[in-house]
Input
Amino acid sequence: MNSAGPIARLIDEFARLPGIGPKTAQRLAFYILNEPPEAARSLARALVEAREKIRRCSQCSDLTDRDPCAICQDPRRNREILCVVEQPRDVIAMEKSRGFRGLYHVLHGAISPMSGVGPGELTVRELLERLAGNSFREVILATNPNVEGDATALYLARLIKPSGIRVTRLAHGLPVGASLEYADEMTLSKALEGRQALE
Output
């Protein structure tokens, strides 16, 4: 039973990760144990290095190993458009789309009174300071299309609009290739609200 101690601890550590249930944690643990020892050491080194070297960019608050981050340093980016997202993973999603070439600002969450998250727990102050010190023409609020994301977008829009900067929100609606019969009521409602004229 003694030898089961480290295995159980490894499974418990994997199970603490978001989206990892007990069975997946067990599979990951045994995968690591069946790999050569160097694979485990390499994973451990990568975890420690990421934890020690990754920090928030002083300009956009995205996670980076250099300050400012690569996106903020890139002279080819459009410095008149700022896309506000909730989490660093949202920057990755936007970049994968290849449809946005402006700058980002990461809030590190969304307003959620039920969870005790207010504007003070987010990077709202940093966002407002950044908008005051730059020549942005448009701010795209790309928060998630849920109650918290909508509340955050509404709150930010009220703060930003008096400055004269154009504030837009990502369109919500039907995904490409979806059938109307399978769409829920909220998705269809948002799709109707965000309809555009055909030219």
In short: The chain has a mean pLDDT of 91.
